[in-house]
Amino acid sequence: MATFSELGIGELLMKSISKMGFEEATPIQSQTIPIAIDGKDVIGQAQTGTGKTAAFGIPLIQKIDIKDNNVQGIVVAPTRELAIQVAEELNKIGQFNRVSILPIYGGQDISRQIRSLKKGPHIIVGTPGRIIDHINRKTLRLQNVHTVVLDEADEMLNMGFIEDIEAILKGIPEERQTLLFSATMPGPIQRIAERFMKDPQVVKVKTKEMTTPNIKQYYVEAQEKKKFDYLTRLLDSQSPDLAIIFGRTKRRVDELSEALTLRGYAAEGIHGDLSQAKRISVLRKFKEGSIEVLVATDVAARGLDISGVTHVYNFDIPQDPESYVHRIGRTGRAGKHGMAMTFVTPREMGQLKNVERTTNSKMERLTPPTLDEALEGQQKMTIEKLTNTIANENISYYKRAAEELLEEHDSVSVVAAAIKMMTKEPDETPIKLTEEAPMRSRRERSDGNRGGGNRDGGRNRYKGGQQQSKSRSGQGAGGQGGSSSSRNRPSTGGGKRRNFRKTEA
Ligand SMILES: Nc1ncnc2c1ncn2[C@@H]1O[C@H](COP(=O)(O)OP(=O)(O)OP(=O)(O)O)[C@@H](O)[C@H]1O
Ligand SMILES: [Mg+2]
């Protein structure tokens, strides 16, 4: 751990870093910031949630000449939500330097973007498709760009994306500085990357595993048909604060979120076929906690930093080890703890082993909870809520009603009824899930991601039938929230911070 003051960072930036609550630099930050400030090309690899955004953001902002109204820096990100998030983080980092940052991404009104581009932002953060669009319209000029960042570089240099990246880099002056960051950097991709760079310094934060030790990793072996019931039992017994469930295809995500809603969970889906407005509103609701379960394709696997995500479920095993690393990395960020569960059918066991081998980490086998255990988990939640209410809330107004009730019923029955009413009981409402075709490796796909960050898992485009389920709707949204504890639950959130500390700003 190093302090930021040793890294050659300017005064105004130091002020924003401290306002953001960063006390110490993370390893990737202390190892890359000085060389990036020095003007060198950098390939930076470090585990998910360890502050790579600031690792490139600080040197990038430091280099901006605010008197020059040309675009000087470009950050490219694979998805729209990530572009927005990175722009927000850069805004915080640059808040005292008065650097102006503009996100541009697909699905947003282009004429509005053109107007914003005319105002002369210093840094553009965008998805490949939309950046190219603006280059072609000549509404984005690159001749004054001195720094380019590829966030999630391996993803963007993957087949299907590389042409877009080449097209963008072609227009940027050769003497530029190029910074590439990701939690994963497979060898072949690194070699492609080096083609675009000048004598890049490769910084890999050395760790035994590709995944972070803050995430407890489990697998659940289950027949395809059993997976959904096991998922809901796990949700009940583990009671996550916020959970992300990854499915393989867009249809899968739609069906899963519908099925979860039927069973009484506050769930919504996000994938690349939804309108941008919908994608943003779903993500906002998830961040606020008004939905507790986000069902997603790999569009949400990379880079998203949502605090409070305690559990990640891979309902379908990811397409490759890299995808696994990024998906589970949506929890256990910034020193917090999290849990990841991966469902695997017997014939997918080989893939599971492959993930373990590549990431050099081990998943522990988890037996799915029984219905009784699921109920027990939910009951515990209720009791915790009751105990908290007794301890912390003013309940005097309700005491008279309680006394009246107790004149007619015995106290155990009254309390048992209250617990029953507040507890989300396991629900076996029939649901419909279409079986997925056998998984193809992502490397085989040919249809790249055009049109600006619609990156989605599973390119299989099904015309699949409408699913409908006429069953009764679930009972209440099982108002979870607050802290909870149950059998399988580690001490997630709050408390222990292993890698670095953050104080509230
Ligand atoms: N030095 C620091 N001290 C405390 N918190 C930090 C520090 N640096 C970054 N953070 C916070 O840690 C969280 C994770 O950072 P970030 O999103 O940059 O991770 P990342 O390495 O890019 O992860 P991923 O590989 O998933 O993209 C953010 O909320 C960020 O504000
Ligand atoms: Mg990141």
Automatic annotation (TrEMBL):
Biased composition (Basic and acidic residues): 426-448
Stored Pfam families: DEAD (PF00270), Helicase_C (PF00271)
Coarse class of the protein's main subcellular location: cytoplasm
Compositionally biased tracts (Low complexity): 463-474
Disordered: annotated span: 426-505
GO aspect biological process, one term: response to cold
Domain Helicase C-terminal, chain residue ranges per copy: 214-374
Catalytic activity: ATP + H2O = ADP + phosphate + H(+)
Domain Helicase ATP-binding: 33-203
Annotated function: DEAD-box RNA helicase possibly involved in RNA degradation. Unwinds dsRNA in both 5'- and 3'-directions, has RNA-dependent ATPase activity.
Protein name in UniProt: DEAD-box ATP-dependent RNA helicase CshA
Species of origin: Litchfieldia salsa
The gene coding this protein: cshA
